[in-house]
Amino acid sequence: MKVTMTVNGQTRTGEAEGRTLLSTFLRETLGLTGTHVGCDTSQCGACVVHVNGKDVKSCTMFAAECDGADVATIEGQCAPDGTLNKIQQAFQDYHGLQCGFCTPGMVMSAAALLRDNPTPSEAEIREYLEGNICRCTGYHNIVRAIMAASGQEVPAVAAE
Ligand code: FES
Ligand code: FES
């Protein structure tokens, strides 16, 4: 079947089977490989995108369910000239990424958190990111980056 969705402000159409996951559609049909797939079992959060303004794990939705939806991926987070948004910049400034595999999902989850809660506490950030697994950084710097992106004072060493 043909599936059409708005992705990062552009209308995109592609063929999908009924079983095609949104993550697969984005990566393999639309070529948007910034959305990562780390588990395919809804645990790691590397695949988080926004669908109609809500953060979702794109490996848990079918592409066909998103026909007509408004989808935002990591590719649409920076400015057209490549300037990073404030969350991306904070991840860079506070070393919130090492291998970078989890980063797209972390940034998309952080964007959803800050939209709903512009000044989250450290505990709220940690709770919100429970569905996002990072195997590199131990989360300290990710939490610090999100604190910075929200304009708050950044803890010198975030508590575990
Ligand atoms: S790939 Fe979707 S949660 Fe891991
Ligand atoms: S930066 Fe490597 S998995 Fe998070």
Search tags:
160 residues; alpha+beta; Ubiquitin-like (UB roll); DNA polymerase, domain 1; 2 domains; 5-stranded mixed sheet; 5 helices; 5 strands; 29% helix; elongated; binds FE2/S2 (inorganic) cluster; 2Fe-2S_ferredoxin-like_sf; metal-binding
Estimate the mean pLDDT confidence.
Answer: 95
How many individual β-strands? 5
In whole angstroms, how far apart are the ends?
A: 47 Å
Q: Could you say what the CATH architecture of the largest domain is? A: Roll
Give a list of the ligands: FE2/S2 (inorganic) cluster
CATH superfamily of the largest domain: Beta-grasp domain
Helix content: 25-40%
Helix vs. strand class? alpha+beta
Describe the sheet with the most strands.
Answer: 5 strands, mixed
N to C succession of SSEs: EEHEEEHHHH
Instruction: List segments where confidence is low: pLDDT < 50 over at least 5 consecutive residues.
Output: none
Estimate the global geometry from the Cα principal axes. elongated
CATH T-level topology of the largest domain: Ubiquitin-like (UB roll)
